[in-house]
Design goal:
single chain, about 65% helix
Length: about 180
Amino acid sequence: MLSELHISSIGLALCLAPALVHAAELVRPLWARWVVNWVLPLFAPALPSSSKSLTHDDQMAMLDATLAAAPQSKHPAGADYVFFLLFVQRQGALAFLSVAVGVIYGLTLPLPDRHALHLVFGVMSLLFMLVNANHAGVPLLGKHPKVSRNGRNVGLLFAPFWGVAAALNALAFFYGD
């Protein structure tokens, strides 16, 4: 049986996963291609292949095509949309790094002092579980209009992962009461 300290520590540590995968995107949002090229193929399941991998030039061409698809009268809004996609990518990486700092700090605290962290990370984990379940095909949890096969498989795997993280953080939160 796991102790309260172990449940708390595992619940917090699971929340490090997004920072481990996405931290570099803070510096370069186009580095998301490394996840697309080298991680997502594993969910096919298949081995990554450099011949099927996106390059920086491919990404730039895709972004340019997005902008070119906007009607000329809406070109400024199209440019803002492309900017916003990459901006949100960077902010997401920043948020994940902030979570990692909170987790690492929280692991140094005694159990009663982790209470607020378990609330925040428990809610985060629960919401991540719901979004991943939606990508896996569970209806009524939102709508992602472009879920790929690998994206669905990520949802199938990570909905339970985040469910475990949510449950452990909830247990640890309620231990504090």
